[in-house]
Amino acid sequence: MKNNQNNKLMFSIQLINVFIGIIVTLIFGMIYMTIKSNELKGVLLGLLIVFGIFVFINLYKRIHNQNDIEESNIINTIELVNEDNEIIKQWSIQDKISFLIGKNNGDNEAFLDLNESIYSTLVEDNHAVLNYAAGTWYIEDLSLDSGVCIQKIDDGKKYRIVKNTPCSLKRGDIIFISKVKLLLR
């Protein structure tokens, strides 16, 4: 749904830019027809061409750069890895909005079930929750003791999350549920 809204917005912006270009061209055309001097007409035509090239190059760069940034931050999967960074399990989160990280038992249903990890004894049943809002994933620490840490891709530093306070996530960040390592891809 977000992609559809972005596409509509980009189309609207492009349509507005086309109309602005048509209006500017008509104004320059009217000025061009009323000027008698050929030298002045040549200078005006040259300025119009340079201005048009500059505007289109700038617009092209802006549109393509924004698409690259948006696509690079989309988180599609979460991977459970061991100490050697070998993937043990993988979960697709493309169609999710919110889910629990923890352990499944008779009363609890966690989407990211960490029972397969060697550190599962350190993981609580409801350890953390991930929520998707406004195009960004957020994590909240629900644990009593162990806590949740994040190693941010931006600076490589490890941060402990404050309980019940959402923390934004990006593709490439690493979540530590106690000693369990989860890669965001």
UniProtKB/TrEMBL annotation:
Membrane among keywords: yes
InterPro entries xref list: FHA_dom, SMAD_FHA_dom_sf
Classification via PROSITE patterns: FHA_DOMAIN (PS50006)
Superkingdom field: Bacteria
Pfam families: FHA
TM helices/strands, residue ranges: 12-35, 41-60
Residues of the FHA domain: 99-145
Keywords of the record: Membrane, Transmembrane, Transmembrane helix
Designated name of the protein: Forkhead-associated protein
